[in-house]
């Protein structure tokens, strides 16, 4: 199975939000996004933009989207899209992810998972991986999108228009 990979530079918070808006137009129920990266790398900011964009696109008012660091999972609706936003930082492993119902949601809802390493081998094979990082000069953020399987190459085609922000 060949991997799809895209690297993007995000010079500021607005670019991170713009990436969330573009990805919001590419996702559907049953998808899983796995977001890795250190604290402060932009994961929660990206999630907020994606969820609120999906809500606005579906005709809803955007909800407040707090980081689920302490609640572990937050759920949202965006028209027909059922979204689970999980932060697994405080979990010890896959059994705890199962206890909060996350494993059952894979393949059914749009699952956005921060700190997916806590899933062990339970992460969906066809998930879209987003690795966020802070460049060595401390300016902006970088993100690497990687997917194996599914129709991600076709669905991520709109990111070609994202080029002016990914130099």
Please specify the SSE layout and strand pairing.
Elements: E1 3-10, H1 13-24, E2 32-36, H2 43-57, E3 73-78, E4 81-87, H3 94-99, H4 102-105, E5 110-114, E6 128-133, E7 141-148, H5 152-155
Parallel strand pairs: 2-5, 2-6, 4-5
Antiparallel strand pairs: 1-7, 3-4, 6-7
Verbal overview:
With 167 residues, the protein is α/β, with parallel strands linked by helices. 25% of the residues lie in helices and 27% in strands. Strands 1-7-6-2-5-4-3 form a 7-stranded mixed sheet, with helices on one face. A hairpin with a 2-residue loop joins strand 3 (73-78) and strand 4 (81-87). Helix 1 packs across helix 2 (43-57). The radius of gyration is 15 Å and the shape is globular.
Give a quick summary of the entry.
This protein has 167 residues and is α/β, with parallel strands linked by helices. 25% of the residues lie in helices and 27% in strands.
Tell me the Rg in angstroms: 15 Å
- Strand order, main sheet: write it out: 1-7-6-2-5-4-3
- Helical residue percent band: 10-25%
Please report which band the strand proportion falls in: under 5%, 5-15%, 15-25%, 25-35%, 35-45% or over 45%.
25-35%
Tally of contiguous helical segments: 5
N-to-C series of helices and strands: EHEHEEHHEEEH
- N-to-C terminal Cα separation, in Å? 28 Å
Number of E-state strands: 7
Would you identify the regions where 5 or more consecutive residues have pLDDT less than 50? none
Mean pLDDT: 89
User: How would a crystallographer describe the biggest sheet?
Assistant: 7 strands, mixed
- Class by SSE composition: alpha/beta
* Dominant shape: globular
């Amino acid at each position: 199975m060949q991997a799809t990979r895209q690297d993007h530079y995000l010079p500021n918070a607005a670019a991170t939000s713009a990436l969330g808006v573009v990805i919001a137009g590419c996702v559907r129920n049953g998808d899983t996004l796995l977001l890795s990266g250190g604290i402060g790398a932009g994961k929660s900011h990206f999630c907020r933009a994606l969820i609120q964009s999906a809500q606005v696109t579906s005709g809803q008012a955007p909800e407040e989207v707090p980081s689920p660091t302490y609640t572990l999972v937050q759920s949202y609706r965006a028209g027909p899209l059922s979204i689970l936003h999980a932060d697994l930082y405080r979990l010890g492993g896959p059994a705890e992810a199962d206890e909060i119902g996350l494993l059952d949601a894979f393949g059914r809802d749009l699952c956005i998972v921060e700190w997916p390493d806590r899933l062990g081998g339970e992460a969906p094979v066809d998930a879209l991986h987003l690795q966020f990082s802070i460049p060595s000069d401390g300016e902006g953020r970088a993100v690497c999108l990687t997917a194996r399987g599914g129709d991600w190459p076709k669905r991520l085609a709109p990111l070609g228009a994202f080029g002016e922000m990914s130099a």
